[in-house]
Amino acid sequence: RGFRGGGEPQKAGFTAVKRASTFAENKKLWGPKGQKLMESQAWPTHAFWENLILGQGMDTDSAITVLPYIVQATQEGLVIAYPSVASSASQSMNAFDLDAEGIRFEALTKTYRSIVGYSELGVDIAWSFNDGHPDNSEQEIVSSTSLVQGDPYVTMNIGAQAGFRLSSEQTMILVSRGDNKKGTEPQACDPNAKKRISTVTGSVFDVYLSQSDHTYRLYTFPGTTITCPYPKDVNHTKTTLTANGFEGTVRLALHNNCTTGLGKHCFLPSGLPSPMPTSPEFQNYLDAQSHVQLKGGHVSWAASSSSPSMEVSLQYEYTQIQPSKTTSPPPMILLLPHQVSAGALDHGERIPGSHRSMIGPQIPIVGSEIRMTLPMPDNIWGDQRPLKDIKVVQEGLDHDKDYDLMYQWKKGVGDPYNAGKLNARIGRLALIANQLNETEVTESFLDKLEEYQGLWLSGKSPNPLVYDEDMGGVVSCGCNFDSCEGKCTPHCANGGKDQTKNCPTLGPGAFSAGFDFGNGYYNDHHFHYGYHLYATAVLARFRPKFIEKYKQAISLLVRDVANPNAGDKHFPMFRHMDFYIGHSWAGGVYRSFANGRNQESTSEAVNCWYAIALLGDATGDKALYEVGMTLLAMEVHGAQTYWQNINGTSHYDPVFADNGVTGILWSNLAQFQTWFGLFTWAVNGIQMLPFTPISEYLIQPAWVKQQIKGFTKACSESAPCKSDGWSPLVCMALAMIDQDQALKCTRALPKSSFSDQTAEGNGNSLTNTLHFIMSRP
Asked: 3-state class of 24 per DSSP?
């Protein structure tokens, strides 16, 4: 199985460690049945539903985005809201207020919540009887749900005749559609009606929320009677609808978000789609497919046999709530913009109408899978294409041929992110020297790379990589760096001889959560380890004995970020990639955020998947190559759809899309900023670095043409952009559209732009910059 699965982490020489006591509090959020589930599995750290097991786990900050809804899972049940889109020049967001606008959807008994299962596309939650013993995993399940990405319904399965209730701070008007057959007389439970009725009966109901102007369709299997008491205080709007003794399946689906034309969803910014959905066709399909329930799903991939592309399929698992004698029809699912542009509409029946979100419309289809065709790059190593002027690149190599790391980086005294960038820089120099037939220089770089990369892979770095037994992952232990102001040898001051007994990355609180850029809390692992894997792939091409020596450790890094094996108990599957959303998430497990998951640098995510593909290619591991290519193709397509906002093609509200680029994308928020500032040069540059041969596959010339003027101007006016090594990115981006001007740009840069003591220049070199420019097609 090569680098992709199996093997105990300790066999690689990585020390096994335990997390701080705060981990026990997080573990409780799985609930009694969930804790039993996790005894034999690694902890998923970047799932779309991660908020359920972070922070408080059940408050409004712990809500999750299951488009088209925002869902909070409390100890009693679900709270559901349908967001509106609110935008400005600095951000666009899914705006919601669960307290004021949400519908509470819960059983009529006191319960404990447990996470009882999950798949690549969904999470399963159960509520069991609260018997006063929260650790009892044998409690009887009262209700359950499967929250599945792309599902237009929210479903609760009610057992033990527990009944259910819907409640809201808004006034709710309930209308029974009977059994939804023509000729059935509607029954209305309306507090404003002259003649009030207190119960309505049926199996299909409309639930109108008067303040938000939303109408939901409610389906019950079997039919039931719902009690709708009226508040004694006419000024009090809160409504509770109750079905006592019910046992079966209950489903909610948004039917219309602009029922009367007076709600905030009815007043749209220019360019956004019309309110969802007023078309009778959509509403008819909601009824027709209401008995087909999504349960989860999995992902498959394969290289196309007819074109240089990857075929990626999201295959949904579903069941009929009321089985019929005929073949089970496929479910209704919702497509996002990147799925539509990748050909997913060709594999399902298109339904009129759409849902809204900040990233664009969600298009409904009837079908059991979302199938996408994503192009694959060629020339992945970057040395198959002739250089326009070899002498120009040779000029850079003459400058860099003796390059070496500073003492502390040679010895592994530093964080894994910057260490990876520096090692990848040497790997890139080795590849370019090899292309120029500079054998002696190539071998010199490879010798250095073996030593420096081997230190990290051996687990013997002063800041060692260790295996987190509690959550299942490779993390850095951390280094309290002490330079002694030049009076002693730079070293890590924590822990004495055994650093792993005092890992600053694994302690409680914000200090540890930010240490090594949050590596110990699973922030940005694909960024950090992507650079290490790139350096390792270079060694795999030229020094196979090195790969054989460190095969177990390399396997751990690959499995940490891109484990494709559901049976691997040591690591979660595909830690970072959200296959439905179409890109990775970078933010880790320190706390929950109301805006959900987040990612900043798509280009560094691309770099990781690129490195895995290179590693597979260099070692002849076809399956590993295809894993890398699948993730690479997915990330590039997602980046080009949601971060590179080309005029006229972006799905964001135009007032935000006019920036041309997204800096940080959250589940519910797109921002024009970075984690380190609001600078235009930073927001553009962070979506480009590092420049490697794969950059031409990621960075669209049309996007560069649109952004380059503002990028250039912002950098020229900023001292940090020039002093921290960001200015070469401007020149390399320019090379995508004007090779000659890019060369002039580079020649005007001071050599300090490539200093390994700068924030960005440390991962780049003059040689790499000139090679990228001279290798443009």
From this structure: helix
* pLDDT value, residue 230: 67
Predicted TM-score (pTM) of the model is: 0.96
Alpha helices, H only, 203-296 = 280-288
**Residue written as token pair 């890019």:** 742
Task: Kindly state the percentage of the chain with pLDDT values over 70.
Answer: 94
Here the tokens at position 271 are: 């360019």
Backbone angles phi, psi at 340, to 5 degrees: -60, -45
Q: The tokens of 401 are what?
A: 């041929």
List CB contacts of 679: < 8 A, sequence separation 6 or more. 714, 718, 720, 721
Dihedral Cα 302, 556, 453, 633, nearest 10 deg? 20
List of residues 6+ apart from 338 with CB closer than 8 A: 582, 637, 638, 641, 642
Cis peptide before 186 (omega within 30 of 0): no
* Element spanning 626, H or E: helix 622-642
- The angle that helices 525-542 and 416-435 make with each other, rounded to 10 degrees, is 30
d(CA 614, CA 117): 34
The pLDDT tens digits for 433-447 are: 999 999 999 999 999
pLDDT per position as a tens digit, 56-112? 888 889 999 999 999 999 999 999 999 999 999 999 999 999 999 999 999 999 898
Tell me if residue 194 falls in helix, strand or coil: coil
pLDDT surpasses 50 at 273:
no
Dist CA 733 CA 227 (whole Å): 64
In this prediction, residue 192 carries a pLDDT of: 73
Alpha helices in 51-112 (DSSP H): 98-101
In DSSP notation, 472-531 reads: TEEEE----EE-GGGTS--EE-SSTT-GGGS-GGGSSHHHHHHGGGGGGGTTTHHHHHHH
DSSP 542-595: H-HHHHHHTHHHHHHHHHHHH---TT-TTS-TTSSEETTTTEE----SS---TT
- Phi, psi dihedrals of residue 626, rounded to the nearest 5°: -70, -35
For CA atoms 390, 392, 398, 399, give the dihedral sign: negative
Mean per-residue pLDDT for 323-350?
89
* pLDDT tens, residue by residue, 130-160: 776 667 777 889 999 999 999 999 999 999 8
Residue type, 670: A
pLDDT tens per residue across span 630-689: 999 999 999 999 999 999 999 999 999 999 999 999 999 999 999 999 999 999 999 999
Whether residue 228 contacts residue 199, with contact meaning beta carbons closer than 8 Å, is answered with yes
Strands (E), 367-490: 369-375, 465-468, 473-476, 481-482
Half-sphere exposure of residue 332, counting CA atoms within 13 Å on the CB side?
24
Condensed to tens digits (0 to 9), the pLDDT of residues 470-503 reads: 999 999 999 888 888 878 888 888 755 576 778 9
Query: Could you tell me if 127 and 76 are in contact, meaning their C-beta atoms sit under 8 angstroms apart?
Result: yes
- Classify residue 361 by its DSSP letter: -
| Alpha-carbon dihedral sign for residues 484, 488, 489, 494 | negative
Q: How many other β-carbons are positioned within 10 Å of the β-carbon of residue 219?
A: 23
Containing H/E element for 695?
helix 695-698
Average pLDDT across the chain, whole number: 92
